[in-house]
Q: What sequence folds into this?
């Protein structure tokens, strides 16, 4: 979920004193109330490593995979009433800290339907993976998503991040967005009402549960050819065999973060098992047992070195979330 949408926890869950223990017990009751009666999957103390492309991250107090939209609306209402913090995870642009995420973490894996609508519009639920949506568009000979070849996030995550490449961005194809607001109401919002900037969409408060994409008819062979070529370029230039979260820093205007990091001599730099990729300097990879603390230390090291050597302050594209 977007940072701004997180509810503040209603209570301080500090343990260790009788008052702390009472508060802790109250926090546990609130958490149980937030997830009560759902039809989807609920896992307490679920490791978020398994939900991130970086394979890093501590536990969520409760991880919920709602069964469908109705189940998600119920969860939103209960989370709101119980005043429990809520976060949505697709998992491919995130560094989850080692202490994990307090409250409820939602994953939309079961909101995975795609519908064809008239006039070359496709509606995809928020949990659909971009590669799946891309395959669907190719099977219908629809053009307009080729720029996204190789972006591994969910449709919802790509809307929220205004994901993109040099060749295009989510905003270019987006016609409208469906959200569930914090009170559990479904709200549709035209793309014209959303402000998009570089890797960011300013949306109404809520969880994105679907998107209408305006595509156009094309030649299947041509679309497939373009996608294959972009995927080949990624394989040649990006460390796709190792866990990562894609580009760590945003590209500064008229420059590339990777070029600046490489020029600062940091390709291959390491903290623990976190490494600046040898293949693409704006990727950090997990060589096996990297902790979030290692990645954060490496981010600081790279940021400092680039600033000292070039005067450019790099801004994070990666989102660092969870309990400091
Ligand atoms: C190998 C690799 C290559 C990549 N290449 C690119 C690239 O070329 N271009 C690019 O832009 N990105 C790229 N990425 C990054 C990533 O795939 C995108 O940023 C993507 O948009 C993230 O989607 P996600 O579903 O994983 O969201 P997450 O990373 O889980 O979340 C991103 C943010 O969106 C919020 N969010 C997620 N789902 C919802 C929802 N349903 N409702 C409200 N908020 C939500 C989260 O809470 C978080 O704040 C790459 C990543 C990898 C691992």
A:
């Amino acid at each position: 979920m977007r940072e701004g949408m997180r509810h503040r926890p209603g209570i301080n869950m500090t343990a260790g004193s009788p008052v702390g223990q009472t508060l802790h017990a109250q926090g546990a009751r609130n958490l149980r109330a937030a997830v009560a009666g759902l039809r989807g999957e609920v896992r307490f103390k679920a490791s978020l490593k398994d939900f991130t492309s970086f394979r890093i991250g501590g536990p969520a107090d409760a991880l919920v995979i709602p069964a469908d939209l109705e189940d998600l609306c119920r969860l939103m209402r209960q989370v709101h009433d119980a005043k429990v913090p809520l976060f949505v995870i697709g998992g491919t642009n995130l560094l989850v800290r080692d202490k994990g995420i307090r409250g409820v973490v939602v994953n939309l894996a079961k909101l995975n339907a795609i519908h064809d609508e008239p006039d070359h519009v496709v509606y995809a639920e928020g949990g659909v993976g971009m590669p799946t949506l891309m395959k669907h568009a190719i099977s219908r000979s629809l053009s307009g998503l080729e720029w996204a070849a190789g972006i591994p996030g969910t449709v919802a995550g790509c809307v929220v991040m205004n994901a993109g490449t040099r060749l295009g961005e989510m905003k270019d194809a987006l016609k409208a967005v469906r959200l569930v607001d914090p009170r559990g109401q479904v709200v549709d919002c035209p793309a014209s009402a959303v402000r998009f900037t570089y890797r960011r969409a300013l949306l109404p408060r809520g969880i994105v549960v679907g998107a209408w994409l305006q595509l156009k008819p094309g030649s299947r062979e041509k679309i497939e050819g373009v996608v294959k070529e972009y995927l080949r370029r990624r394989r040649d230039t990006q460390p796709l065999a190792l866990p990562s979260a894609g580009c760590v820093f945003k590209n500064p205007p008229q420059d590339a973060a990777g070029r600046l990091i490489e020029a600062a001599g940091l390709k291959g730099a390491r903290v623990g098992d976190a490494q600046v990729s040898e293949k693409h300097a704006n990727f950090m990879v997990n060589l096996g047992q990297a902790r979030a603390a290692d990645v954060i230390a490496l981010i600081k090291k790279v940021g400092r070195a680039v600033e000292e050597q070039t005067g450019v302050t790099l801004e994070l594209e990666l989102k660092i979330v969870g309990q400091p």
Notes: The first strand starts at residue 41 and ends at 47. The pocket of flavin-adenine dinucleotide is lined by residues 1-2, 53, 87-94, 108, 126, 151-154, 156-158, 160-161, 163-165, 199, 207-208, 240, 244-246, 319 (CB under 6 Å).
